[in-house]
Amino acid sequence: MTKILRVNMTELKTHFQDLPEEWKLWGGRGLCAKILQAEGRPDCDPLGPEAKWIIAAGPLAGTLAPSLGRISIGAKSPLTLGIKEANSGGPAAQKMDRLGIRAIVVEGAPKENKLYVLVIDKDGARLEDGEGYRGLKNYALAEALYGKFDRKASIVSIGIAGERKWKSATVGVTDTEGHPARHAARGGLGAVMGAKGLKAVVIDDRGANEVELADPKGFREAIRRWAEVLKEDPQTQNMSKYGTPGGLAPLRSLGSAPSKNYSSEQTEGYEKLSGQNFEKINQERGGGLKGCMPGCLVRCSTNYYGPDGKYLTSGFEYETLALLGTNLGLSDPDVVAKLDRLCDELGLDTIEIGSALGVAASAGKMTFGDADSVLALFAELEKGTELGTVLGNGVVSTCKALGVTRIPAYKGQSIPAHDPRVTKPTGVTYATSPMGADHTAGVTYEKFKHKEGAVERSLQSQIVAATLDTLGYCFLARVSSNQVQLEFLRDLLNARFGLTLTMEEMVRLGRETLQIELAFNKGSEFYTAHDPDPEFVKTEPAAPLGTVFDVDPQEIASIWDKLETIQVY
C-alpha cells in the first residue's frame, strides 16, 4: 500500500498512513493541492508552525518511465502568499516511489529553533540532529551528508538562503551524480523548509522492492511506442541536441528573453549564450548534455565545465541564462555559469535573483554588463548584509527598498524569461495562474503575437501544465501534440494500475488541480496583498517587435468560466 509520511517537527516524531484510495492517481502538484485543501489554512503565516510543507512524487515515478520522475514541493508561498508548487528533476521522486511513499507532509516547528535532517530508508523514517550542518552551502552540505550516508541516496536540502527564510530561497535536489544542482526554485519554498527546521532530507532506497505493474507487457509497449514518437518530434529532438539554452538566441531575437531589466536595450554578444555556441564550448571542455534522472530519453540537462576543464554547474537552463545573463547585460557563459553555481550553493532562485539584480542595476547599485559589480552584490547576499537581505527577498522587496515603482512581477513573483508583451497568452497565464508569474504554469508560443484567443490558449496550456505536474512528467520532454502526450501518460497509468482511464479523466487531473488551487487562494492574501500587475508591459513596447501586452482585461477576468469545458487535445 502506498503511504504518506507524516513528520511533526514540534514533537520530532514521524509516522506513516495509507494514501487514500481515491488519491491513487494523484501525485506531484495535484496531490500537494489536495493535501493543502484538506488540511491547510489559506490564511496561515507561511513561515509559521501551522503551515504545511510537502514533498510529493508522481504515481509513475518508481517505474523509471521516461521523464516521469519530477519531484514537487508544495506549501503556501511566502512570496506570493498563495498556494505554491515548484518541481525539480533528479532521482528523489523515483526513490520515494520505490519506498512506497507518495508524499511527505511536514508540520510544526522545533521548539528551540534547531536544525534537523530527515532520513528515510526501507526501515522507516527518523529525524537526526542537523545543527552540525548549519551555515553550510548546498555543495558542502551534500559532501558532508555523503560522508555519512550512501553515495547513491538522494538529498533534498536548503542552503544559507533557506536558513535565513529569504523569500527567494529554493529547495535543492541532488542529480544522478550527487550534485545539488536541481532546484524547486520558485515561490520561496526553501524558506518554508527552513522555517520547519529541516536542513535536509536524505532518501535511501537500497533494498526497496521493485514497483509492481499490473500489465508489464503493456507498460513496456507504451514506452517502446513513446521512444519512436520522441525520435520524430522536432521539439524534443531540438531539446536533446541543445537543451534549453537552444531557446536563448531565437527568443532573444524576438525580444522575449529579457535584456537589461526587461528594457528594449540589447545585450551585446548574447549569441554567445545560444545553444549551438554554448554546447560547442562545453563539449570541448568535457561537459555536455545528460539526463537529470534515470530513464530519461531526452537528456537535455546541461553539465557545464569551466575553462579549467572541471565541472562547474549543472541544470544550467535557459531561464538562468536569460535572467542572470542577458537581463544583467552579461553574455559570457563562464560568468553566467559562475553565478548559477553561486545561486545553487546559497539556495537562491536564479529567476527571482536575476530580476532583483536587474532592478538594482537600473537603480545604480551595479552596472549592466560588469561581472565584478554583479559578483559584489552576490558577496552582499552571502554575507547577509542589509542590501543582501533585500535582494534575497526578491524583486518586489528590492523595488520597494530602492524606491523603484516599475516592478517586474505578478502577485509578488518576478517575471520569468518569457516577456508577456511578446507572448501574449503567456502574459495571460502570469495574470491568472494560481502560481503568479511562473514559467512552469503555462508558457506557450502558439500564435504568440495575437491577443485574439490568447485567453483560451493560456487556459489550455495551464490545464496541460497542471496535468503533467500532477503526474510528475517533465515539461521539457513534452511533445508537440497534447493528444499524443496525454495518450502516452494514460496508457502508462492504465498499465501500472490495471485501469481503463479515458482521455477526459486524464485532463480531469489538471482541471481539478486548478480548481483546488484557485479555491485555496481565495482564502489567502494572494489577491489582496500585492501591487497591481505591472503597468510597463502595457505601455513600453518590447523591441524589436514593438508590441505591448494588450489583451482585454475583461476577457482575462473570464478565463476560469471555461475551465470545465475547453478542449485541450
Describe the 3D structure.
- Helix content is 38%, strand content 14%.
- The chain has 569 residues and is α+β, with helices and mostly antiparallel strands.
- The chain has three domains: 3-203, Aldehyde ferredoxin oxidoreductase, N-terminal domain (Aldehyde Ferredoxin Oxidoreductase,  A, domain 1, 4-Layer Sandwich); 241-418, Orthogonal Bundle (Aldehyde Ferredoxin Oxidoreductase Protein, subunit A, domain 2), CATH 1.10.569; 420-478 and 502-569, Orthogonal Bundle (Aldehyde Ferredoxin Oxidoreductase Protein, subunit A, domain 3).
- Helix 1 packs across helix 19 and helix 6 packs antiparallel against helix 18 (482-497).
- The longest helix has 20 residues, at 503-522.
- The chain is globular.
Descriptive keywords:
569 residues; alpha+beta; Aldehyde Ferredoxin Oxidoreductase,  A, domain 1; Aldehyde Ferredoxin Oxidoreductase Protein, subunit A, domain 2; Aldehyde Ferredoxin Oxidoreductase Protein, subunit A, domain 3; 3 domains; 14% strand; globular
Summing up helix and strand content along with how strands pair, one would put the structural category as alpha+beta
Strand content: 5-15%
Q: What topology, given as strand order, has the largest sheet?
A: 2-1-6-3-4-5
From the spread of the alpha carbons, the general shape counts as: globular
Assigned CATH superfamily of the largest domain: Aldehyde ferredoxin oxidoreductase, N-terminal domain
Quaternary structure classification: single chain
Helix content: 25-40%
Low-confidence stretches: none
How many helices in DSSP terms?
Answer: 21
CATH top level of the largest domain is Alpha Beta
Q: What is the second-level CATH architecture of the largest domain?
A: 4-Layer Sandwich
Fold-level CATH name of the largest domain: Aldehyde Ferredoxin Oxidoreductase,  A, domain 1
Main sheet record: 6 strands, mixed
First CA to last CA: what distance? 33 Å
In total, the number of domains comes to: 3
Average pLDDT for all residues: 96
Radius of gyration over C-alpha positions, nearest whole angstrom = 22 Å
